[in-house]
Amino acid sequence: MEQPPSTTPHVTSDVTQRKGRDLVAATAVGVALAGLLATALVLPPWALTVLVGLLLIAAHVELGSVLGGLDRPVHTDVLVAATVVLLTATHLAGAGGQAAGLAALTVLALLRSLADRARRDVLGTVARTVLLGAWLGGLASFALLLRAGDAPIVALSMVLGAAAAGDIAAYFVGSRIGRRPLAPTVSPNKTWEGVVGGLVAAAAVGAAVLPLDGSSSVLRGASIGIAVGVAALLGDLVASMVKRDLGVKDLGRLLPGHGGVLDRVDGLLLALPVGHALLTSLP
User: Fold this and answer.
1) What span, in angstroms and rounded, lies between the C-alpha atoms of 239 and 241?
2) Given CA atoms 71, 77, 83, 85 in this order, what sign does their dihedral have?
3) Cβ atoms within 10 Å, residue 4
4) 23-42 vs 45-69: helix crossing angle, rounded to 10
5) Fewer Cβ in 10 A, N or C end of the chain?
6) How far apart are CA 57 and CA 254, in angstroms?
7) How far is C-alpha 64 from the chain's CA centre?
């Protein structure tokens, strides 16, 4: 008797097409990055500063290559130098150092174009350089502010964990029961069902981790976890918008299964400042 066609290959093909990633490689890279972060958190604060700096420099070099190939150049040398200045200043002087580092980024980008005799598209080059420096370095530097705050390991673990759990849960829920597109013109694979699943996971991580600081309630943890999850989702959508505008799938190739560094940390870049703001202001 003829057997009905199996639906399993279609499901597998659909998931692969929707994500377009090597999940084994992506998982291995994700575990390795999580291990590096966990190690940096239990070491003295400089370890996190060095790790964030290395990731940012790698991301800037990747992006400089991608954008140069698209005839949208940036001052990669300025981005690398400004990353060192920004993170060092933030590490040593906190929020004041962060502000000074961002100001230095703008000044360096302008002076770099002034010194370039072959300069062209000055406004575009400087604007792209400052945008990338503020987007990546400026937002990532909030990790150092969290590391310098009260209960830093709990705070950072909550923000990183809520963002990561939200992303993973959104993928699994969306790939299995997702039907309603969230933002089809920006990221067609994201669904409202996935968003709900992701926010539930982010709330659960916040509720479980943040009370470990000894002063937070489960409700406070869940609320901040949801906010971090929303921020991470928006950060992911922003990166997708940029990639669509550039006409590229990934913003680098350094991390197998993920693409580039920015492709892996795009959600965290918005989650970190939101987490910092809420953890330092929400009672």
Assistant:
1) 5
2) negative
3) 5
4) 140
5) N
6) 12
7) 18
Residues 81 and 104: their CA atoms lie apart, in Å, by 10
Provide φ and ψ at 101, rounded to 5°.
-65, -40
Q: 3-class DSSP state for residue 182?
A: strand
pLDDT tens for residues 110-141?
999 999 988 889 999 999 999 999 999 999 99
Helix axes 261-281, 218-246, angle to 10 degrees: 150
Measured in whole angstroms, how far is the alpha carbon of residue 279 from the centre of its chain? 19
**C-beta of residue 175 within 8 angstroms of C-beta of residue 18:** yes
Report pLDDT for 23.
Answer: 65
Each residue's pLDDT tens digit, 181-226: 999 999 988 999 999 999 999 999 999 999 999 889 999 999 999 9
**pLDDT tens readout for residues 151-174:** 899 999 999 999 999 999 999 999
Q: Per the structure block, which two tokens stand in for 162?
A: 């809520």
CA distances from 111 to 59, 103, 173, 183, 262 (A): 22, 13, 48, 39, 26
Q: Which DSSP letter does residue 120 get?
A: -
Residue 275 and residue 45 in contact, taking contact as beta carbons nearer than 8 Å: no
Cα–Cα distance for residue pair 79/83, rounded to 1 Å: 6
Report the residue count for the chain: 283
Phi, psi of 64 (to 5 degrees): -60, -40
CA distances 274 to 134, 148, 156, Å, are 15, 16, 12
- Tell me which amino acid residue 141 is: S
- 75-112 burial, b at 16+ Cβ within 10 Å, e below that, comes to bbebbbbbbebbbebbbeeeeebbeebbebbbebbbeb
